[in-house]
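Hi team,

Filling in the usual template for the complex we talked about on Friday. All components are listed, including any nucleic acid strands or ligand strings, so the model treats them as one assembly.

SUBMITTER: L.P.
PURPOSE: interface mapping
COMPONENTS: two
RESIDUES: 773
SEQUENCES:
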Amino acid sequence: MLRSTASRLLANVRVAPKAFAPARAFSTTAPSFFASATDASEKVKITLPESSFEVYNLEKPSLELEFSKEEMVDMYTKMVTMRRMEMAADALYKAKQIRGFCHLCTGQEAVSVGMESAINSADQIITAYRCHGFTYVRGGSIKSIIGELLGRECGISKGKGGSMHMFSKAFYGGNGIVGAQVPLGAGIAFTQKYLDIPAVTFSLYGDGASNQGQVFEAYNMAKLWDLPCVFVCENNKYGMGTSAARSSASTQYYTRAGYIPGIQVNGMDVFAVHQACKFAKEWTTSGKGPLVMELNTYRYGGHSMSDPGTTYRTREEIQHMRSTSDPITGLKQHLLDNSVASEAELKAIDKEARKIVDEAVKEAQASPEPDLKEFWTDIYQPGSEPQMVRGREPGESHWY
Amino acid sequence: MTFLATSIRNAAPLVARRAALKQAPVALSAIAQKRWNSNSVEMTVRDALNQALEEELSADEKVFLLGEEVAQYNGAYKVTRGLLDKFGPKRVIDTPITEAGFAGLATGAALSGLKPICEFMTFNFAMQAIDHIVNSAAKTHYMSGGTVKCPIVFRGPNGAAAGVAAQHSQCFAAWYGSVPGLKVVSPWNSEDAKGLLKAAIRDPNPVVVLENELQYGLSFPMSEEAQSSDFVIPIGKAKVEREGKDITVVSHSRSVGFCMEAAEQLAKDGISVEVVNLRSIRPLDVDTIVKSVKKTNRIITVEGGWASYGVGSEIAAQIMESDAFDYLDAPLTRVAGADVPTPYAANLEGYAFPDTPIITKVIRDTLDKKIGA
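RESULT (copied from the run log):
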C-alpha cells in the first residue's frame, strides 16, 4: 500500500474551482509569499485514494477534504523544518555533541504534522521516546529541542530529560519505557472525560510496543469507561530490528483491540493522517468511546543513532521507500500540481527551514550547560521538598 | 484475602491489643487521664483511613479513588466502605484486575491535573505496576524540568498478613523508600493512618502509603485534634511514641505495636525504652533518630521487611554517617523479617517476623553487651 501512495495520491487531486473569501487568518511558519489574504485562504480540494484507509467495525471516513493554501504550505513548512531539525540532530550526534540515546523520526513526519493539523490545544498527545517531531508540532521551539539534546540550560526540560523526555503544552512526552505511555494516555483521556472537556487524547506507540500487556489493559479500561482515547499504533515496520511479522501474531494492528473499532491509515500521506485524526476526534468526542488507529509509516534511519538500520532490512527497501513514499515529496507534488506554490517558492521554504534550524542550533550551542542548582530542583514540587537531599557523600548533600 | 477471613484473623490480636491499651493510661497522671478520656475516641485503623478518604473526597472534586473492589464491594478490606454511596461511580471506581493498566491510567490522570488515589488490593500486586510508580510517577517531574506535575497517592496494605504464604507477605518499604521523587509513609495506629493519608492526598508529589492489613481491625485512641477534618501529620516527621533513656527502638507500621509492648514489659524491670515510630520512610526523619541515640546511646531497629538493604540497614548507615556514631555504647542490631520467603504453616511463620519476645530479647542483649561485647 505504501509504495504507490504518492503516485496514486496525485492522480486524485483536483483544484477547487472557487476560492472562499474572506477567511480567517492562519498563522504559519512559512514565509509569507501569498499575494493576499484571499489567495492564502483559497481552498484546495483533495480526494484521497481509496487505499488510504482500511477499517475495522466502522465506516470509512470521507475521502474528500479541503485545505486552504496557507494550511497546505504550513504543513509543508513544518515537515521540512522537522526533517531539517532531525538532520541537524543526526549531525550533532555524530559530532558527539549529543549523548546517550537519540531516536529520529525522519520519514515519519506526516504522522505528527497530519495529527497536529486536525486537532487543537485542548487535545492531548503522548508518545514514546521518538518524540522530537511531536514536541515541535506541539509548540516546542527548535532551539529548546536541540538545546535539550545538547543538554543545555535552554533545553525544553532544562537539559534534564534529553532526547526521550521532552514535554510541551498538551504533550506528555517523551516516555522511555516501551508501552508505558499507553495507559498514561488513557489516564489523560480519563481526565478529559472527568472534567467534561470535549477533547481527545492520542496515545501513541509503535508496532514493537503493541505487544505489551498494558496496551491491552488500557484498551479494556478505555472501552469499559468510554474514554475519548485514540490508541495510535505508529507502525514503522520494525521494533528496533525485529520486523512486525517477527514480533506480532497479527500485524493488522488496527483490529487488535477486538471490541474497539479501528482504522488503518497511510501514515506517509499527511492528508490521510489529517482526515483520520479529524475523524477520530469526532468519533471519540461524540461519546462513541475509544478508537484504535494504525498509521503505516517508515523510518529512514536506524532505530536509534547506534543502529545503522541495515542489518535487518535491505538498503534497497529503504531507498525504495524514500523514492516512492516520502511524505514530503508527496505533499510537495500536491502543492505544485495545485499551483499552491511554485518550485522556487518551495525551494525558498526549504532554504528558510535550513536557516531557521541552523540558527537554532547555533543558539542552543551558545546556551550554557544547566546551572548546578538545577541538579536539586524538580525532584519534588517547590515548597514540598524534604529537608535535605543526599549527594554522593554526606558533604555534598543539598539542604532546602 | 477477603474481609471476612481478615476479621476472623484479627479477632484474637484485637482483644489482646485492647487489653494492652487498658494498661496504657496507668502511666498518665489522673488529670491527664481525665482529659484524655473526655476528648478521645477509640477508632479502628480501617475507620480512620475511611474517614481520611471521605474528608479528602469531600474537600476536593479533583480527588477520586480507583482500584479493585473499592466501590460496589466496599473494598476488599472494607477501607472504602460507603464511599461509592456517598460520592458515586464517577469518583469511586472499580477497576479490572490489571495493576499495570490502572496504575498507569491513574498516573496519566495525575499528570493531566486530577488527584487520584490508586488503591492496590495489596502492595504485593503493585509489583505488576511498579514501573508506573517509579518511572512514570516519581520521575516525570524531574525529567520534564518541572513542567509536569504528578499529585497521586498509591495506597493499600503492605507487609505480611497472617497465613497467606510467600507471595502475599512482603514489605515494600525499602523498595519505594529508595526512589527519589517518591514520598513513602507507613502508619502504625489510627491517628497515623488518618493524618498521613490526608497529608499524602494533599501532597503535590507522588506518595506511597503503606498500610498494614493486620492493623485495619485494631482500635486506637483518636485525640480531639485527630478527629478534625483539618488534621494532617507532616510527612517526614517521626514520632517518639514512648520516651525512654536506656535504648532507642526505631520501628514502623505494625512492628511499632510490638515495640511498645516490649517497652512496657521491660519497664517492669526498670529498663527505660524510647520507641520511635518512623511514620515516614521517605523522607526519613534522621534528626529524631540521631537526637534519641544521643540521649540513650543505644539503638535497635525493628521492621517486618527483610533485613538486607532494608529500612534498618538505612538507619544503621545514617547513624554511621552522623555524629550519633560517637554516642553509641553498643552496636546497632536490626530486628527484621527472616531472610526466608514467608512459609504458610503457623509455627514456621512465627519465626519469620519480629514479635514482642524477640524485640525484648534483643533489647536485653544490647543492654547486657551480649552484642558487640
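MY TAKE: Chain B has two domains: 41-227, 236-367. Residues 3-23 of chain B form the longest helix (21 residues).

Thanks, L.
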